[in-house]
Each structure stands twice: as structure tokens, then as C-alpha cells.
Amino acid sequence: MEQQRPNNGYQPGGQQPGYQPGNQPGNQSGYQPGNPQAGQQSGQRFGYQPGGQQPGGQPGYPKPDGQSGQRFGYQPGQQPGGQSGYQPGNPQPGWQQSPPPAGGRQHFLSPEKWRDHTAIRHISNATGIAIIVYTVLPALVSVILNLLPGFPEAYNSNQLFALAVDSLFAMECVGLPFFVSYVYLRREELSEPLAFGTPASGGAAALLVFVGLMLCMVGNYATGFLSNFVNAVFGITFTAPEDAFTITNGAEFGMRVLQTAVVPALVEEFAMRGTVLMPLRRYGDKFALLTSAFVFALIHGNMEQIPFAFIAGLGIGYAVLATGSLWTGVLIHFFNNFIAVCSEAMYDLLPASTASVLTLAMLLFVFLAGVVTLIIYLVRYQRLPLDTVKTPLDSRERNRAFLCSAPMVISIVLLVLRTITYVEI
């Protein structure tokens, strides 16, 4: 029998990411990266938000009781495998930019600045186009799937089938555009091979996984506080896509883990840290970290997730930079979302009071473990010095080069417009 969730309990939230039968372009179908919702004004539930959006882009996991309460989910240096990483201060081997012609914007940049400006602009173009495709593709795919005889009925009546479709949806709508972006950057020699290798320090990686999970929790509560504050002071309500799935057995739990934790962790870390963070790293670790976290936050598409995703993106990005391996980020992302699924399952299968106690115990353990491991990390390991890579471009010039390309401006406008649709005044 379905249990009523208390307002102070953990409730992973958000619409089921992925294909939504019957949705036409412009609806919130399809993949939107997201973590479960951060706190809402109607009674924040504490817990995690999965850090990457679920297939369909919809945040987390709403409870069937329809409550509107908060849902929670989530060295520099040598590349893994012994490959040499980005060389501070040096342009990508083999990539040369011709000196700028006289006149126009180029007239105000030295050849060295113009070289780096153009390289960053290429990365921005590739990222912006990938985001535009990611924004449009889910609606197009949903229209096609709606035309298949019997598909909408099968999706609505079979949860295992729906979860499998959503997993494939995420790989297509997020993975495909950013894979094309990565191939382009590799061809232009603006990106190194993906850093899916052994972390430079296994001990540091293990510690940073717990630190990253703690930061996800901090981001979750910060988002809940912001949501409640804005609602109380301005009467503005932040909303997010809803999800109607309920876990009723072990098979559905396993498929939910695949759809919510495994696929987003791999696909989104490849997209955000692999094709945005790492190529920008040679122009400054701080620049790469802040820029990738900004993109990661914005593609979530609603204010219930954007603040959380930015904080989580900083934590995950730092862990990837510090260990030189994308696997560190994948583990943080996976465990954050896995905790959300476990909490969701407890609320679906156990009495609400029992689920609340177990969720609180789980979150308290993760938070304390994060504090302890952070202290150990700061004492035992040299902290990552940010902005060690030299470039003639100053911070403003780097930001302008990345944010002001035509594809990036268009993608930001599209994402802002989508975010506005989840704001109720």
C-alpha cells in the first residue's frame, strides 16, 4: 500500500526523464540532465538530488502520492594510462592559429592572444551546437516515437520498458551531440584523449568521492533554502518536471538504478567533464572548472536543480582535475544518484516513518564521512593549485571568448527560456 511521505523526509523528485508519450515539441519530454529536486516551499525533504539529470532531462523521482514537497536526490598533471596531459602554457600540439589580420576585433589582440581566443571560441562553438541539438532532439524523437503503432501504450503500461527507453533516450539525446563535439575537438587537436584511466592517486580519489557526495548534499540544502526564501519573500515558486514511476519490485529497482545512476553518471561526465572541462583546462583550471559547472547547471533547465548542479559541478570538476581521471567524477555522480534511488525505493516499499529514519541515517553517514575525508585530504594531499596554466588572455577575455560565440549565446537563450517555464509567479 502506498505510504504518505512526511514533509521532512527524503523524497527524490522530478519527472521521469526520457520519452514522454504524447508530448509534442515544446513540452518537457526528453532528456534533461537533472538531479532530484531541491527544496520546495511546500516543505523541503532532505536528502540527495542526483547530480546529473536523468534520461529525459527530468530531475529525479516523484512519489506517486503527488505531493509537491521537495525532492532530493546527489593531480592535475599526467593523464591516466601514463599519457601526458595538457602542457601548461603550450598550445595543443599540432594546432596552430594563423596570426590575426589587421582590423576588427583581431586588431586589439596580439598573435598569442588571438591564438588562444580562437581556440576557446572553437570549443565554445562545439559546446553550444551540442547544447542546441540536445535541446531540440528530445522533442523530435518524442514525435517520432508517438507515431509508432502501440509504442505510447507500451511505454505507459510497462515500467521496465519505459525505464529502458529512457536510458536509451539519454544516451542518444545527451551522449550523441557531445560525442560529435568531442570528435570535432579531437580532429582540430583541441582536446586530449578522454581521461578514462587510473587516477593519479587512488587514495586521493577515494577521499574525494566522499567529499564530492558531501558537497552534493550541501548543494541540495542550499537550493532548498533558496527556493523557500524566494517563495516566502517574492511569492515565486520554482517547479520542475514530474515523474510518476513507482518502484514495486527488485527488477524495477535494478532498472531504475541503470536509468538514474549508471547511464547519467557515464553520459553526463563524458559530456560535461570530458568535452567541456578538460579541453578548457589549458587556459586555466579555475576558468575550466567554473565554465563547466556553469554549463552543467544551466542544462538542467529549472531553478529547482540549477543551483544544486552548479555546486555539484564544482565538486565533481575539482575531483576530476585533482585526480586526472574522469572515473572519479563518474563515481561521485553514480553514488549520489544511487542514494536517491535507494531512498525512493524505501519510500515506495516501506512505511513512511521507517523510510524517513533510514534516509536520515544514510545522509548523516555520508555527511560525516565527507567531513572526515575532507580533513584527511587537506592534511595528507597537496591541494590543487588552480590557474597554474599560463595564457596571455586575462579572465575577462577568456570568458568573452567562450560565452559570446553565436552557438553559445543561442544555447543559453534556449536554456533560459526553458527554465522560465518552470517558474510560477
Automatic annotation (TrEMBL):
Low complexity: bias regions: 1-10, 17-37, 63-78, 85-94
Bias (Gly residues) ranges: 49-59
Residue numbers spanned by region Disordered: 1-109
Record InterPro entries: Rce1/LyrA-like_dom
Entry GO MF terms: endopeptidase activity; metallopeptidase activity
TM regions (residue ranges): 123-148, 160-185, 197-222, 287-303, 310-335, 355-379, 400-420
Domain CAAX prenyl protease 2/Lysostaphin resistance protein A-like: 257-339
Keyword terms, alphabetized: Hydrolase, Membrane, Metalloprotease, Protease, Transmembrane, Transmembrane helix
UniProt key word Membrane: yes
One GO BP annotation of this record: CAAX-box protein maturation
Protein known as: CPBP family intramembrane metalloprotease
Source organism of the structure: Candidatus Fimenecus excrementigallinarum
